[in-house]
């Protein structure tokens, strides 16, 4: 999963220029060249749901139907955090623009409020919940597996895979 866009073009810093990470395309093109599946992600900043959805769609149009889009919904740097209507408007607009239903990334502690919104738009949940902060590799049965339904589980923020 490659973080590709932030907000609606208003943010520049840390390799992000006007809301687009300058390193994203190289990573994605490498995945394509190696025939590896990939995903691309938008970080919601709370600067306008419809504007952010359009920004994500326009700036990743070349990846549409080739990779898996995802939306990063978390508290840090997101003025809309806690406003599920904002996420609802974003998803509605993105699906209308692209015809594609993205994954919605959310921490497990906010899953109960976000799951109905994601479900309304036929979007899968990518849920993050960590047992600790230690680096780890692939686990076939990670901690808390099966405790709740999700399309994708993230069990480490320091995952390491060979290759």
Automatic annotation (TrEMBL):
GO biological process: cell wall macromolecule catabolic process; peptidoglycan catabolic process
SUPFAM superfamilies, sorted: (Trans)glycosidases
Organism lineage: Bacteria, Bacillati, Actinomycetota, Actinomycetes, Bifidobacteriales
Name the record gives this protein: Glycosyl hydrolase family 25
Keywords, ordered alphabetically: Hydrolase
Classification via InterPro entries: GH, Glyco_hydro_25
Family assignment from sequence similarity: Belongs to the glycosyl hydrolase 25 family.
Highest rank taxon of the organism: Bacteria
Gene3D superfamilies: Glycosidases
GO molecular function: lysozyme activity
């Amino acid at each position: 999963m490659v973080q590709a866009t932030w907000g609606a073009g208003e943010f520049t810093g840390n390799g992000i220029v006007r809301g687009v990470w300058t390193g994203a395309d190289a990573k994605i093109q490498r995945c394509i060249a190696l025939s590896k599946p990939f995903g691309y992600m938008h970080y919601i900043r709370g600067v306008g749901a419809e504007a952010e959805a359009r920004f994500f769609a326009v700036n990743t149009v070349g990846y549409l139907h080739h990779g898996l889009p995802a939306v990063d919904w978390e508290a840090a740097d997101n003025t809309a955090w806690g406003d599920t209507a904002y996420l609802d408007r974003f998803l509605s607009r993105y699906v209308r623009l692209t015809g594609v239903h993205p994954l919605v990334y959310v921490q497990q502690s906010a899953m109960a409020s976000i799951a109905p919104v994601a479900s309304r738009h036929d979007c899968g949940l990518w849920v993050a919940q960590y047992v600790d902060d230690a680096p780890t590799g692939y686990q076939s049965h990670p901690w808390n597996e099966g405790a709740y339904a999700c399309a994708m589980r993230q069990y480490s923020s320091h995952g390491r895979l060979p290759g």
